Amino acid sequence: xxxxxxxxxxxxxGKCISxxxxxxxxxxxxxxxxxxxxxxxxxIYQGIIDAFFKxxxxxxxxxxxxxxxxxxxxxxxxxxxxxxxxxxxxCIKMLMELSVKRQCEDLANQIQSSKAEExxxxxxxxxxxxETSNARIDNLNNIVxxxxxxxxxxxEAEKVRTGFRDIDNKILGIVTGSxxxxxxxxxxxxxxxxxxxxxxxxxxxxYKVFVYSPELTNSNFKSCVYSTIxxxxxxxxxEFCGEKYKKLSDRGNMLIDQWIKDKLYIxxxxxxxxxxxxxxxxxxxxxxxxxxxxxxxDNLMKIDLEGSYKNEYLxxxxxxxxxxxxxxxxxxxxxxxxxxxxxxxxxxxISKFDIAGTGDITNMADYVFSISRITSKDRKxxxxxRDCIIKMMKDRPKGTEDFAVTxxxxxxxxxxxxxxxxxxxxxxxxS
Length: 431
Fold this sequence. Notes:
- The protein is an alpha/beta fold.
- Helices cover 46% and strands 15% of the residues.
- The protein folds into 2 domains: 6-146, Orthogonal Bundle (DNAb Helicase, Chain A), CATH 1.10.860; 154-424, P-loop containing nucleotide triphosphate hydrolases (Rossmann fold, 3-Layer(aba) Sandwich).
- The chain has 16 helices and 13 strands.
């Protein structure tokens, strides 16, 4: 198959000359002169662009003046050729795809003739080029009219329940396509909340999950998650230095292993990444090829953000915006852990303005949760306090006002709960 189509090139150039609306659409679609194979076509397209931006209009006369070295009859034939009934959007897409094919072939030839030490950078250049090109092609369909949008109310929207009745009763669950920010001071239960509300609940409701958590070894992570998922009958009592404790039984471990296979994805200990691009690329693959719908990033500070050495806040904003776009594109849930600033007071209650970094983290989020541990001093002030407080600080989809729930904690089973039903919930690894 040829890596060019001259008829398509002529048709697009003809539409550029004959219709201002078509030219604006072609420009907005991201077509550039390098998308054309024929050298003369590159020159004509650039001349059309220059004339359009100079005169704010376009027609055959203006183009003829701008391109004095191009035969006038050739330009006229292009206009005549544009009368054919082709789908302009399909033609633009084909033009771009053929352009990508040619440039990939050029890169492949470069790799073939390069020295071994140059291949790595060329491969990276190739991957970046393909990603940029695909985004450009996908961009063709980014503008629609409102009548083509399906309207869904918050009550009908697809949602993942948090598993906490007092939260779900108010927000109805977390709507897919959302970015969820979770914050809390060290040691206050963020990881346990992720394991229970974001991992166990999602798996129980039929969603596949990816977790990025480089601070924990995979063995430690598995031990914590499995303890949260396990039923009460799958714990054995043990003793260490006179202290009794409960641990997951071999039976429980085996059953959860069988259930969780191909449902929960993580990086191997030896192949984790801190690269923003690599993380987003891997998330994209999991969404496309493994049907993963829930993504957990623990935490923002572990990622090397591009350009952060120039402007850290701008780099954070760009990355968080990419996470939001990702959630929307795949109708996925993205949970992002963001640490709060160091407290001035030891028992300070967290607000969304206390999250470290740019304010755009919470601005772009659809939901914002915080978790705080209750101290004995707190209990003296309010006898209704239990072990922790989960505060809902933003609920964009439903518009719920800020509220908080207080929950108990079971250290053996690593679960928060508001009732015995929540403590003893079975997540479904035994059918």
